[in-house]
Design a protein that fits this description.
Elements lengths: L7 H29 L6 H26 L30 E2 L4 E2 L5 E3 L4 E3 L4 E3 L4 E3 L4 H31 L7 H34 L3 H15 L14 H9 L39 H8 L25 H4 L15 E2 L2 E2 L22 E3 L6 E3 L4 H14 L1
Antiparallel strand pairs: 1-2, 3-4, 5-6, 7-8, 9-10
Helix pairs in contact: 1-2, 1-3, 1-4, 2-3, 3-4
């Protein structure tokens, strides 16, 4: 079923990619190759440009199919049937079929929910912003053909432009004009980054094709490897790796002659998949294995008390104290209002002090000395500032005598 781009941002992305492909493909032919051949049709010109234009047409066709082909979603009335051969994936601990809370549907194996498309996608690989669509069961083959076409067409384009530059170096008579030179630089600047970026991306996806793995399952395999290395689970084999040839056939179909034909029907319905030879059919329903510790934590219910001030037995926590309580019980002098100890000053005693023994306190007579003055209501002496000049003179005289 045709599916046009859904959002305004998606239309902008798709339009930008279309314009970029058109600029690289046709500006090189019109402003570089055509003037080089003297603006006249010839057999050599057709021989050079015909394969390139066929690659561009093949690229556009697969890009159109990537954008407008529905990757596949779960049928509304589909439910797992354990008595039939139709597979369904189970949760590891509960043993119940996987269920999408957003779509409110059961999820078959390899299906995942896309937050951008807001639906579950069959055999979901990833959501591609360049096509404003999810890459899934029904358009994954178109996506791989599109990547292959971009790699080959960009390589052909770079070779064609480089041949023009090399020819100008060997024969200065055919030196390009300033206008042609500007388009040569512009084509290099736009085509080489595309070739490098898409080339690396293609290597990863062709590796996924040869191992029958999606991008999501690649992340899952990395998590499983980490769990095995940490000793949390035993080693588990990936259930969908059927072998090199069978993995390619699972995506492009049975006949190798039709692998490059875009309208070749996709094998399967995306609701069940073949497993590797010697693998139990039920192993695919338990993929990927979960972290047992994390799943156990999810099953444990932590109930909080109704009030943050209650203790475990429902009473107030006896150890609960204000954070400033230590400041309030700090050591203070006896005359301070917050003082809680026995008071023994000027013959006055604290009646609540049980350890107090009544004794007569002899007040020491403090003889006032010259240079010192006593502050009333204080327990200490307050000294005046010393005469530093006099002290220096005394120290100087002592040093001279010594």
């Amino acid at each position: 079923m045709p599916r046009p781009p859904q959002r305004l941002a998606g239309r902008i992305w798709v339009g930008s990619v279309t314009v970029l492909i058109a600029f690289i493909a046709y500006s090189s032919q019109i402003f570089i190759i055509w003037p080089w051949y003297g603006r006249e049709f010839s057999f050599e010109l057709v021989q050079l440009l015909l394969p390139f234009n066929l690659l561009v047409a093949f690229l556009y066709w697969n890009y159109f199919l990537c954008v407008y082909t529905d990757p596949g979603t779960i049928p509304r009335d589909w439910e797992p049937n354990p008595t039939s051969e139709e597979g369904f994936e189970l949760k590891t601990l509960t043993g119940t079929p996987r269920f999408c809370r957003h779509c409110e549907r059961y999820k078959p194996p390899r299906a995942h929910h896309c937050r951008k498309c807001k639906r579950c996608v069959l055999r979901m690989d990833h959501h591609c912003p360049w096509v404003d669509n999810c890459v899934g069961h029904y358009n994954y083959a178109h996506f791989l053909r599109f990547l292959w076409a971009v790699d080959v067409a960009c390589s052909y384009h770079v070779a064609m432009i480089s041949y023009r530059v090399w020819y100008a170096i060997l024969y200065p008579y055919w030196e390009p004009s300033g206008f042609e030179l500007a388009f040569i630089v512009a084509n290099y600047v736009t085509c080489l980054p595309v070739l490098v970026a898409v080339g690396v991306f293609s290597l990863y996806h062709f590796y996924c094709l040869f191992t029958n793995t999606t991008t999501v399952e690649g992340w899952e395999k990395d998590k499983v490897t980490t769990l095995v290395r940490r000793g949390k689970i035993t080693e588990v084999s990936f259930p969908y790796n059927l072998g090199l040839i069978e993995n390619v056939r699972a995506v492009f179909g049975g006949s190798p002659l039709l692998w490059c034909w875009p309208k070749h029907p996709v094998p399967g319905d995306g609701l069940k998949f073949s497993v590797a030879p010697g693998t139990d059919e039920s192993e695919q329903y338990a993929w990927p294995p979960k972290d047992p510790m994390r799943e156990r934590e999810k099953q444990t219910k932590h109930e909080l008390p109704s009030s943050p001030w209650t203790f475990g037995n429902g009473d107030v926590n006896p150890a609960l104290r204000p954070t400033s309580s230590k400041l309030r019980t700090a050591n203070v002098p006896p005359y301070h209002p917050s003082y809680r100890g026995p008071r023994h000053r000027d013959g006055w005693r604290d009646e609540e002090d049980e350890d107090y023994v009544e004794e007569e306190e002899e007040e020491e007579e403090v003889q006032q000395k010259p240079g010192l003055r006593m502050r009333r209501g204080s327990e200490g002496w307050e000294a005046t500032m010393p005469d530093r000049w006099a002290q220096l003179q005394i120290e100087s005289a002592v040093n001279k005598e010594s």
